Amino acid sequence: MSEAYQQLLRATIEHLERLRSRGVRFVPASTDAAASLSRPPAGRTARRSAPTTEKQPAPPTPETSPAAPVVRLRPPAPGENKQRALETLQAEATACVRCPNLAAARAHVVFGVGNPEAALMFVGEAPGADEDAQGEPFVGAAGRLLDKIIQAMGLRREEVYIANVLKCRPDTPGRRSGNRKPTPEEMATCKPFLLRQVEIIRPRVVVALGVTAMEGLFERRCVITRERGRYQDFGGIPVMPTYHPAYLLHHESVREKRKVWEDMLRVMETLGMEITEKQRGYFLKARSQS
Ligand code: SF4
Predict the structure, then answer these.
(1) Is residue 197 assigned to a domain?
(2) Domain coverage including residue 165
(3) If you measure from the C-alpha of residue 185 to the centroid of ligand 1, how many angstroms do you get, rounded to a whole number?
(4) Strands (E), 125-174
(5) Most buried among 17, 140, 236, 262, using CB within 10 Å?
(6) Domain harbouring 151, CATH code
(7) Using a 6 Å cutoff on CB, does residue 109 contact ligand 1?
(8) Residue 286, pLDDT score
(9) Segment 94-119 mean pLDDT
């Protein structure tokens, strides 16, 4: 990438960040301008860092394209140390008080956990009580189910990366228990942290766990029953929408479990992972009997 292009990019980003700090949320741009911004500069090769899995087939073509803001991911800084970059970002998130009510109510900022070189990243919605208490995403009942899904794929939790759209637990004033869905404003405020995580890790596939994760990532309404199982593009990274593990905990239906599993099989295929006959058949026999 040429130095001139990098300077232009930095200046554009700084200008947009100044606007955002003044509360501006949308910037009018012509279709041509948006298209040229989303194109890599001439001569740039679309190369990604090596994932933990060896085979790298071409990313799938997105299957749906509902109206949503164009996502632009910053290219990795040359020679960037992913672990160090994530630690720096985590320190910034830990000190963040952009949502004063959430900052006042939280026990921990739940940044994310896993392998900075992960080929596969899971994105959920927000920390719940267990996650807030422990400072780690997906550690409650839904987290244990996510661990099982990851294991069924032949992976370990430490091999993937797990994060939420919102880094602080949505507060529930006047209530001692229970969770609430993050507001679109809260998700938009926190989004730069998730974007940077994706930019640093550069996973080959992102799995969006549930409707709120999809809405946070794409900043639009989502009907997860319609969208699950169909790849969507997030700045060049395929995103597989699927149900949140908490949904499976509440709907003990083999049919629903199979749907999530089919989404994971597609992800495994995209990552070039070996899939055994046993893995292909999970929840099939029970489903045909149900
Ligand atoms: S939710 Fe995100 S933006 Fe809001 S205070 Fe927490 S870290 Fe900061």
Answers:
(1) yes
(2) 82-289
(3) 11
(4) 161-164
(5) 140
(6) 3.40.470.10
(7) yes
(8) 56
(9) 98
